[in-house]
Amino acid sequence: MKLLEKIFRTHDNSPLRLIRDLLWTILLVNYEILRSIYKWFIPNERKDIRGEVVLITGTGHGIGREMALRFARLGAKVVCVDINPQSNEETYNMITSELGYAFKYVCDVTDRTAVMALAEKVRKDVGDVDILVNNAGIMPCKPFLQQTEQEIRLLMDINVNANMWLIQAFLPAMVERNHGHIVAMSSIAGLMGLQNLVPYCGSKYAVRGIMEALAIELRCEPRDTSGIKFTTVCPYIVNTGLCKKPRIRFQSLMKVVEPEDAADIIVDAVLRDSLEITVPSIFYYAIRFAYRLIPFTAAAIIINFFDSGLEAHDD
Ligand SMILES: NC(=O)c1ccc[n+]([C@@H]2O[C@H](COP(=O)([O-])OP(=O)(O)OC[C@H]3O[C@@H](n4cnc5c(N)ncnc54)[C@H](O)[C@@H]3O)[C@@H](O)[C@H]2O)c1
Question: In this entry, which stretches build a coiled coil (predicted)?
Fold first, then answer.
């Protein structure tokens, strides 16, 4: 694939060259479509992560804690990172009481200097990080005009900028070894706009954009980076307390997901090197192949019909 990209990367637009490139492009696009269909029916085998270093942010609670427990059960060395020392310690104790291998660090992931210092410490104490899970996030939920500058800046710092600081801290060693995996938590709110979540939606669309652009950029690297994988996760409402007032019209169709179930699905997707998933998976097809193909005004009517989302709340 790298070779093909080098072949295409030219300013030679002679007719012969154009015809050749066009034929190659059609062939490769069809190959990739067929490969995706095949992977849909027969996904990758789950990879073995025994002994690998998995760093997760936001391990003190919710999905982050559940993922930490599951990665540890698979034999990984789990590096738990959270701003809250007590809750992070609880997660650490839960892992070690199951005889899992864990390390704990307190870090505010919005502080770039602290993130770089964390990377240095982790490298010395544990080794190079094989799987980075950018999970820490917050979700203020109220009409856009009621969100303060401070709230919006903090949201962007945690949900977006921290992702970039952590990637800048851990990606270089992954590129050096041509081995690694970056996992990011986006959301269904990163696939469609939702009431009361304007900045949050913006932050989760940004996460998807960062992950997509990074994957494209690494493909263009002169050296082989095919050993670095990317997984973007878009969960629906997960019962962690983050979504305080869910409003669901069709409760049996659109069930709130338990954090344990969400973590099972996410860890499985990471082990299979899935590029992008929704939790549950039905939303992936519903949004990609229905919602995105119709005019926005028609999509808005469907959203009204399902009347599913989050009510505003103060804290
Ligand atoms: N819960 C949901 O319904 C849902 C849905 C879609 C996406 N998500 C995303 O999944 C991720 C996890 O969500 P959750 O529901 O488990 O959240 P949660 O509130 O249960 O846990 C978040 C953890 O992040 C930590 N954290 C917050 N700010 C931090 C900071 N500056 N530095 C370090 N740690 C910090 C918190 O202390 C907490 O332990 C988030 O990115 C969220 O946006 C959640």
Answer: none
CA 187–ligand 1 middle distance (angstroms): 11
Asked if the structure places residue 315 within a domain, the reply is no
Q: In a mutational test of the pocket of ligand 1, which residue from 56, 57, 63 has the highest number of ligand atoms less than 8 Å from its CB?
A: 63
| 151 plus 25 within the same structural domain | no
Which residues of the chain are modeled with pLDDT < 70?
1-10, 315
Atom from ligand 1 closest to the CA of residue 257: 3
Question: How many structural domains is the chain composed of?
Answer: 2
| Whole-number pLDDT of residue 291 | 80
| Residues with catalytic roles | 200
Q: Could you tell me how far CA 7 lies from the centroid of its own chain?
A: 32
CA dist., res. 58 & res. 81, Å (int): 6
Query: Whole domain around residue 1: which residue ranges?
Result: 1-38
pLDDT score for 4 = 60
* Nearest-atom index, ligand 1, CA of 134: 41
